Amino acid sequence: MRLQHGGQIDRGQKISFRFDGQYYKGHPGDTLASALLANDVRLMGRSFKYHRPRGVLAAGSEEPNALVELRTGGRQEPNTRATMVELFDGLQAMPQNAWPSLRFDALAINDRLSNFLTAGFYYKTFMWPAVFWEKLYEPIIRRAAGLGSITTRPDPDSYDKGYLHCDLLVIGAGPAGLMAALTAGRAGARVILADEDFRMGGRLNADRQTIADMAGADWAAQAVAELAQMPHVRLMPRCTVFGAFDHGIYGAVERVSDHLATPPEGKPRQTLWRIYSKRALVCAGAIERPIAFANNDRPGIMLAGALRAYANRWAVSPAQDVAIFTNNDTGHRSAADLMALGVHVAAVIDTRPDAPPLAGTEVLAGAQVTDSAGRLGLRAVTVRLGNGQSRKLSVGALGVSGGWNPNLGLTCHQRGRPLWDEGIAAFIPGATLAPGMAVAGAAMGQFSTHAALATGAEGARAALADLGHNTPAPDLPRAEDAPTRITPFWHVAGTKRAWLDFQNDVTIKDVKLAHQEGFEAVEHLKRYTTLGMATDQGKTANLGGLAVMAELTGQSIAQTGTTMFRPPYTPVALGALAGRSSGRDFRPTRLTPSHHWAREQSAVFVEAGLWLRAQYFPRAGESHWRESVDREVLATRASVGVCDVTTLGKVDVQGRDAAEFLNRIYCNGMAKLAVGRVRYGLMLREDGIVFDDGTAARLAEDHFVVTTTTANAVPVFRHMEFARQCLWPDLDVQLISTTEAWAQFALAGPKSRAVLERLVDGGFDLSNAGFPFMACAEVSICNGCRARLFRISFSGELAYELAVPARYGDALIRKIMEVGADYDITPYGTEALGVMRIEKGHAAGGELNGTTTARNLGLGRMVSTAKDSIGAVLSRREGLAAPDGLELVGLRPVNPQSQIPAGAHLLAQGAALVAANDLGHVTASCYSPNLGSYIALGFVKNGAARMGETLRAASPLTGVDLEVQITSPHFYDPEGERLRA
Amino acid sequence: MHDLAPLTALGTKAPQQEKIGLVTLAEAPDWALASVTARLGQEAACAAALAQTLGAGAPGVARYHGGPVLGAFWIAPHSWMVQAPYSAKPDLAAHLRGQLGPCASVTEQSSAWARCDVTGPAPLVAEMFARLCNLDMPQLPSGHARRTVIDHLGCYLLRGDGGAVSVYGPRSGAQSLWHALELAARSIV
Amino acid sequence: MIIPHPLLGPCDAQEFTYLGDASLIARPDGMAEGAADAFHDYLYLRDNPAGLHRELWYHEQGDRSWLVVTRNTLTHEIVKAELARDVARAEGRGR
């Protein structure tokens, strides 16, 4: 019900929302939980295991019960805490874990079967037979248990990521956090103040305490207003700092648009922030804990502080008649606040025999709540009085306070070990915190408002002093400074089920069972009973469970210890972790200089790493990719083809020692390469395995350009920098990547020279003698454009690669097509490129796969023994130089029209298809239009000595099994006459 | 002038420009670039020669000199990227080789980088880049240059006066970079 | 983690790629007697200390410097970061 007065809600405005199919009204400022309570909805969900009716327990992010599926369609979000959902017009939410309805849940039968569903029941019940697990048990369990369901539709919203920097990150905007931010902000420090709530103020919004003679909430609003005026202070409401990482880095999720029906145009739903802080002050407050008693999970039984928060902040009470069950003074404070707002408090049931009196209600000292009644919501509680008599109280709500736990989450993320504080009967942050982190206020066990303000200010001053700024101590506004008075009391003895962990349905009985079966250590207790797991991570439950275990083992809680908290503090949406990197924006796309032209030619593109490359260029009438590729290959070999090869990595190597450097980087000799010449180079890893291959072109005595494969451009450059800086720091060599600077085109085919003659400006001798195979030069083309020309061939034809500054790449491809028209110049893509290299027996990605040696590739003799180069020594290891090692061979199917699947394994004819018989495998396969046959490359043990042998090629994956004959890998022009023509 | 017409990195003849809220994105293709790296043992000579060419000191670590024609920014120890309006120095590398002599290795980089100039109110531009890279923009005053990552792309970011930021990103990724800048600019409107 | 780059100041470890033990600087002479054994030790035998560890990081998204970072593997505290080139020279590497 909504109380007559008070609350930080806008009563002038009504907003409508829907829960479990029913329409309700609330006000701006409400959460879904407060609005439901205002509408007398106490039943909000069903429990995880027993499908017990459940209502809201808390008023903040620690909520274990009131989890809903929020929104619909692609925006549907499971396990959303109703206490954290800001009410917006048109909000739709459904309860979880209830079928067919919230009020009648068929699986509530589980509650009757609870004797069979105790801790560890998974392990015991579903053990046998094993085959039943996947088909039978798991689907049943998944349907019955589990929390909300996810949508399979795409999320229509976007998420963002960002980076923030500050001197001081203040986490939590309660009295400690606000005072810290004010202190640091007034001193001119760069401050970020983040709070998970949409309204800053923390407990000040939930209490009736005054600060500086004004309502706490008003003081908070005034502090926020002052901070908002400071340009170097960033206020981040709706922002949860969920993790503390190394060296002052914090992770935070800002719920930018979660409080709106749909995000505004261009705005993300949430932003994931990586915050770089010089210092951080955790002012995360404290979380109240319940006391376990029989049937303590009925809707209407809540934390006393939550009952107080709903009344003060939202002017809501779940019932007109309430009671409080407490072991400490804050229960009395809750009772007083409720009475002040017109709620009838039937009694304060205080476990302490010496409980103080409270005006306006009866305090039952030394009393305990022993049971509760009410099927779908609390109707009454049974109290055992100090004198042993029993009394029944008819109440619709019970506020329970077992004391307060400092909110330790973030303080544990960097291995901080909490310490037990006997005085407040709670764990407090240990002495070893993450470097740069400090704690203030209730989060360090300082529970009075005055102490929060004082430690907040002090924390900020200490942080700034650390950073070299002396800040005067502020005048602290006057505030209550009540001592913490608590007599620990964890659970009411009894035989009925009493809940410790509401979210996981863990009862005292389960902890007893864990103890009985030897799972005593806190980490074992957690895994065995699931205490403290799932979305709330036991924020309200852990300590109760530990206390019961401590009792059972006869140890103190300090000796028993506590489990550690890990990130995230509260659940983080995967969408936020992905940020903008989803769908088409998953990663950037790199376009070649001829991309726009190729698109005009209707090219089909293929992803090669980040690059989009033209795969083939279909022409009208071609209905299958093979037709296009065969045509491109034949046309290139018959006349001339052109292909964009810009994607190959290019590294500019300069310096007096450039040649010597390359001589050590490549396993083959580079030192004596003449100026104006290109050489194929093979690069090994230090372990002797082939790393990469490419060409080195010597443009001048002290200037080379080397190429890498497309895939290895980045690792090869890194490797070269390692060698330059770490291995041979006194070689005069300078490296820089120029992959992006040049647009490079391969012109291949017998007519390539003729086409080139029409491009290269006069005076340059392109004849075979003047510019022979493996020559290179800086030339001028198209009337004065700077260009580089390399006579290298991947296709096996007379071929050149021509490079111009990338900005002219588009114009150059158009020019090439124009001047090549007389020769029917044919653009070809990566498929034709692949076919021609297989026909020629050149190794590429399938062969240079990080497991092969030069010897495997038939290039063993390239590894020079006359010099030291990276990988040379270990390439000669016994294991890599074994005589029966794999050797690169060509493979032709006995039936030329049978395709050889790449990845097929090779065996002797008639040999059984078992690993022991394996002789090698197929690495690359294609149809060769020149040979009129499928062909392949592969590795075969001792392959060079097996020429002409027929093997069995089997691919169990594709079901193909055929006979192939071993040939030379050089299917086409083995003597290399064409490329030297 | 030769027969080949340049295309901008975004694939058009004329550079693109877009105003999003108070922030303007402008593709700036008309810059010539060349990297200059000192030869071993020639570090001082190279810095001095570069200073003479620039008419200002060779930029220190993470610094950027705008210059009237020739500008430069630090990219690595003893290594700089020199920039000039393309029309003024179409063959910047050759020009620098002539100016600097054998103390430096000079490499043509004109087409390697796509440049986008971002302008707007400084706090807004800082907000925009907070969503793009991990640089602390308010602490990166005019005259600073840093390499950073935007949307997985390694970029150079030059800090001009007020809210002016120039981003050099790899040419092949220009469309992705532009897209990322657009999204960030929209999200702060 | 934040790596205190000797030239650029604090830099996020995300900008770096990691290689491993800084002993990789001490590459043996491939032409020397017993090179095979020396390379075996160089490449495969590593200390894995619980505590201070000197390791190689490459500022790939920064100034392309290789750094030798001395890091406590237990706490991630970084006590030193040096340019690997300087370290290599100090350890006697040259041409």
CATH superfamily of the domain at 159-286 and 406-466 in chain A: FAD/NAD(P)-binding domain
Task: Compute the number of strand runs of chain C.
Answer: 6
- Count of alpha/pi helices of chain C: 2
Q: For the terminal residues of chain A, how far apart are their CA atoms?
A: 94 Å
C-alpha Rg of chain C, in Å? 14 Å
Proportion of beta-strand residues of chain C: 25-35%
Which structural class should the secondary elements of chain C be placed in? alpha+beta
The CATH superfamily label of chain C reads Folate-binding superfamily
How many domains, in number, for the residues of chain C?
Answer: 1
Q: Oligomerization state of this entry? A: heterotrimer
Low-confidence stretches of chain A: none
Helicity level of chain A: 10-25%
Query: Quick check: average pLDDT of chain C?
Result: 97
The end-to-end distance of chain C, rounded to whole angstroms, is 34 Å
The largest inter-chain interface, given as chain pair and residues per side, is: A-B, 66 and 55 residues
CATH architecture of the domain at 159-286 and 406-466 in chain A: 3-Layer(bba) Sandwich
The CATH class name of chain C reads Alpha Beta
Radius of gyration of chain A: 37 Å
Summary, kept brief:
The complex is a heterotrimer of chains A (981), B (189) and C (95). Chain B is of the alpha+beta class and 189 residues long.
